Amino acid sequence: MPAAGGSLMFTASAPVSSPIPRKVLAAAAHWHVELQCGSADAAAVQAWRDASAEHERAWQLLQRLDGQLGAIPAALAIPALQAAQQRRRAAAKILAVLVAAGGGIALGQAGLQSGPWQALTASLRTAPGQRRHVTLADGGRLEMNTDSAVDVAYSATQRRIRLHQGEIMITTASDPRPFLVDTPHGVIRALGTRFGVRSDGDGSTVSVFEHAVEVRCTARPDAVRRLEAGQQLRFSDTGLAAVLAMPAHQDSWLRGMLVAADWPLQQLVRELARYRRGRLVCDAGVARRPVTGTYRLDDIDAVLESLCASHGLQVTYFTRYWATVAARST
């Protein structure tokens, strides 16, 4: 992480073969608490970081985990024995987070180390079929689509959104701090923009509506791909796909609509399944039937009923939460 007032830079680095020593992690935790409490100034912290590469690695790891560390209570700044003891306990808790993270993250690594528990414990979540609007601390806007999990980590030197799963739309506010979106597959840097990010188990997709973004995948943080307005990119944790023209109606979900233009039925059913609890699948016998239409996302069962009536289909319910779309029986 850069010094206060500087810009965040992603640089290539040699692979890290061993974890950061525990004593270095402990020192990083100590400096973090002292800086937050006002007991140490930024110059002293910077001098410690500059003293060795291990120190800088530890500090970078701490900043990557900033959203999990929690705020340091203001009372800890009181120069009393009790406050000093509380600061030591706070540093010990931060050290535990750093050690649990492994301490072996390279400086150039991009991407969010996420799993099911991070999504379940995320500070911002939506259920299947739910959408949510969030006004960010800097005045920017965060729109969350169905079944999404997000953490927001703003600090003095950067703004960071951690998308664990699902889909979001970001409209950034004017602010000198870098704006970054982490997914399990890489990191996106906004360049004064409006853009959407969708993340699933196989990869993440970025769609740019205004201005531009830069994208890095986890395995190649030194390889940067710039996207301009009207472009879209799919990437995994191991590589970046080709830049494509963004399909029409990518943001229709913001209006509670899904627009299909000559889609295979399987694709439509897969999209509808995101907005409904349980399992919804398409039978292989009708998977390639072309479908065109505009569908409301607030009542998926009604959409399925209409789809069946107009396309000669039927929905078979094994249970309330397990259904299959297939050809209508004759």
Automatic annotation (TrEMBL):
**Family annotation (Pfam families):** DUF4880 (PF16220), FecR (PF04773)
Instruction: Extract the GO molecular function terms from the UniProt entry.
Output: sigma factor antagonist activity
- Domain FecR protein spans what residues? 124-214
Q: Which InterPro entries match?
A: FecR (IPR006860), FecR_N (IPR032623), Ferrdict_sens_TM (IPR012373)
FecR N-terminal domain span: 27-65
Database matches in Gene3D superfamilies: 2.60.120.1440
Q: What is this protein called?
A: Iron dicitrate transport regulator FecR
Originating organism? Janthinobacterium svalbardensis
